C-alpha cells in the first residue's frame, strides 16, 4: 500500500503533511488534532496545509477516500485473473496482509476511519467490500462456497482480516502478519467453503 498523492503534488510539501496527519489522526483522532500540530509534525508552516486543503477535515477525507479506493482497485486487479473462489480469497488475504505490513500507519487510518466515513463514501469509488461480495457471489454460483447471505459470508471474510490487522495494530501480535497468512486463509476458507 502506497499513499495516494497526485503526480503534480509529489514534490511539494503535501506528502510530509499527509504522513504527519495520518500519524496524528491515528493517535489523537481527527477532532483531537489541530492543523498547527500537523504542520509542526511535518516540519512545515501551517499555511502549507491550506495550499492543498481547506482544513484538516478535508485532508482526512481525501486520505480516506483516495487510499481506500486505490487499495480496493488493487485488490480487484489481484483477484480478477484467478479462476476459483479459493484462489481469489487466498490472494485477497495475501494482498491485504502485505498491504497492512507495507504501510501500517496508512492501513490503520483506513481501518479506524471506515466506520465514521463509509456512509459518505462516493458510490463510484471501490471498497474492499465490493471485491469480497463479488467473490462470494461467484463462489456460491459455482458451488465452491456455502449458500448463505452474501453480507454474512462477506463479513466472515472481511471481519476476520480486519480483526487480524487490529491485533497487530494493538500489539497483541508483534511479528509480520504475512507469517500467519496460511493459518488466516485456512480459517476463513473453512468457515465459508461448501462442504
Within the CATH hierarchy, at the fold level, what is the topology of the largest domain? Tetracycline Repressor, domain 2
Oligomer designation? single chain
Stretches where pLDDT is under 50 for at least 5 consecutive residues are: none
Instruction: Report the order of strands and helices.
Output: HHHHHHHHH
Mean pLDDT figure: 93
Number of H/I helices: 9
Largest sheet: none
Topology:
Blueprint: H1 14-28, H2 35-42, H3 46-50, H4 56-79, H5 85-102, H6 104-117, H7 128-142, H8 150-169, H9 181-192
Task: Give the tags.
2 domains; single chain; elongated; 195 residues; 9 helices; mainly alpha; Arc Repressor Mutant, subunit A; 67% helix; Tetracycline Repressor, domain 2
Structural features, described:
It contains 9 helices and no strands. It is mainly α and 195 residues long. The protein has 2 domains: 8-52, Homeodomain-like (Arc Repressor Mutant, subunit A); 57-192, Tetracycline Repressor, domain 2 (Orthogonal Bundle). The longest helix has 24 residues, at 56-79. The two termini are 34 Å apart.
In short:
The protein has 9 helices and no strands.
Amino acid at each position: 500500500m502506497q499513499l495516494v498523492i497526485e503526480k503534480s503534488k509529489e514534490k511539494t510539501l503535501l506528502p510530509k503533511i499527509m504522513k504527519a496527519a495520518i500519524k496524528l489522526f491515528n493517535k489523537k483522532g481527527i477532532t483531537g488534532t489541530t492543523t498547527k500540530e500537523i504542520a509542526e509534525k511535518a516540519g512545515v508552516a501551517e499555511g502549507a496545509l491550506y495550499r492543498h486543503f481547506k482544513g484538516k477535515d478535508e485532508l482526512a477525507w481525501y486520505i480516506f477516500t483516495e487510499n481506500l479506493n486505490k487499495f480496493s482497485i488493487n485488490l480487484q486487479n489481484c483477484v480478477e485473473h484467478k479462476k476459483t473462489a479459493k484462489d481469489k480469497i487466498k490472494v485477497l488475504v495475501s494482498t491485504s496482509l502485505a498491504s497492512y505490513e507495507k504501510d501500517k500507519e496508512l492501513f490503520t487510518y483506513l481501518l479506524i476511519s471506515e466506520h465514521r466515513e463509509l456512509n459518505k463514501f462516493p458510490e463510484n469509488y471501490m471498497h474492499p467490500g465490493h471485491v469480497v461480495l463479488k467473490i462470494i457471489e461467484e463462489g456460491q454460483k459455482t458451488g465452491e462456497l456455502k449458500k448463505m447471505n452474501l453480507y454474512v459470508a462477506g463479513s466472515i471474510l472481511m471481519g476476520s482480516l480486519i480483526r487480524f490487522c487490529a491485533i497487530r495494530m494493538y500489539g497483541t501480535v508483534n511479528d509480520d502478519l504475512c507469517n500467519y497468512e496460511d493459518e488466516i486463509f485456512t480459517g476463513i476458507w473453512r468457515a465459508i467453503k461448501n462442504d
